[in-house]
């Protein structure tokens, strides 16, 4: 029984995340999840929403996701994100994003990264330093993958 509840909770989280991404929001609103409008969300509503999302992505109806279907779904989400980004940051409303309109990131990030890779501090990155940095990042990714 606990396994069934845990599975349902995990499914609910995945469905809510997918719904939010597809609908352009960080979190789905309650009314979207409460499909029968009775003021509560049931497991059946969550499962139905999950099945709907699956069906939307499984465009050929074979009960499985092909690479093409997954790519099409991702491209659709990326197109929506690009549109929202343009709407949000296009200050002069010319339909284009100039570099000056893009959000400014931490300007020192590149310098800090360079300093970390430039192990001997000579202001240049050698092949050996580059390879060592790649190995370090690879090890970090492997640790992250394991948990």
Automatic annotation (TrEMBL):
**What InterPro entries does the record point to?**
EF-hand-dom_pair, EF_Hand_1_Ca_BS, EF_hand_dom
Q: What highest taxon heads this organism's lineage?
A: Bacteria
Q: Which residues form the signal peptide?
A: 1-21
- The residue ranges of the EF-hand domain are 45-80, 105-140
Q: Alphabetically list the UniProt keywords.
A: Metal-binding, Repeat, Signal
SUPFAM superfamilies, A to Z: EF-hand
Q: Which Pfam families match?
A: EF-hand_5 (PF13202)
Q: Report the PANTHER family cross-referenced here.
A: 45 KDA CALCIUM-BINDING PROTEIN, RETICULOCALBIN
Name of this protein: EF-hand domain-containing protein
Q: Which organism is it from?
A: Yoonia phaeophyticola
């Amino acid at each position: 029984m606990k396994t069934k509840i845990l599975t349902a909770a995990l499914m609910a989280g995945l469905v809510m995340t997918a719904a939010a991404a597809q609908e352009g929001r960080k979190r789905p609103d309650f009314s979207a999840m409460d499909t029968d409008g009775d003021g509560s969300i049931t497991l059946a509503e969550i499962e139905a929403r999950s099945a709907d999302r699956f069906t939307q992505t499984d465009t050929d109806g074979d009960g499985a996701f092909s690479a093409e279907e997954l790519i099409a779904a991702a491209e659709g989400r990326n197109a929506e994100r690009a549109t929202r980004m343009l709407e949000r940051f296009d200050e002069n409303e010319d339909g284009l994003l100039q570099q000056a309109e893009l959000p400014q990131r931490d300007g020192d990030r590149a310098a800090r990264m360079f300093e970390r890779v430039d192990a001997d501090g000579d202001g240049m990155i050698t092949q050996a330093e580059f390879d060592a940095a790649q190995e370090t990042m690879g090890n970090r990714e492997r640790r992250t993958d394991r948990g």
